[in-house]
Amino acid sequence: MLEWDPGRPARLAAIVCHPHPRYGGTMHNKVVFRAAKAAVDVAAPTLRFNFRGVGLSQGKFEDGVGERDDARAALDYLANRFPTLPLCMMGFSFGSVVGLAVGAEDDRVKCLVGMGLPVKSSDFSFLRGVRKPKLIVQGTQDEFGPLPELEEVYSLLAEPKQLHLVKDTDHFFAGKLPELQSTIQKFLREILDGTK
Prior knowledge:
By secondary structure, the protein is an alpha/beta fold. The protein has helices at residues 30-41, 65-81, 94-105, 147-155, 177-193, and strands spanning 2-3, 13-17, 46-48, 87-92, 109-115, 134-139, 161-166. Helix 1 (30-41) packs parallel to helix 5 and helix 2 (65-81) crosses helix 3.
């Protein structure tokens, strides 16, 4: 689902990857929707899509390997549709594992946004040495990304990087979705203004 306002000049395009398909994750997840809305609000055409086997998408779950191919295909689509725009890759939970890995290795992607990183069960070492601007947004009560483990991962990331902790909320940013959205908007504006 591509969302944008063709009446506003775009300087960036974005993709948002959704949480784990095996646990009900789809492009219609509230966190994914808010991340996409943040990008659209700064005039960035934004693509939300379902991984293989989710909703009307063909195929079946492939433990993150096939889903990385899906994210690459989404990048190709967006790059072809908006060939002059830099790209931002965003992902929530499982989508952060997939999206950030793909975005880290693709030169068309200029910045990365991870939300609710499941550091308890996933390896984010692929982000070490990545010098693209990075924003990590995490709830302080995230049961899949506890703060000690998250801070250890974050400490190993290369600059430029930002960590925004959303107080008193869980993995799904319950009751704090407006803060999540405004944090992403601010980061994207900084990217567009060249201050990040």
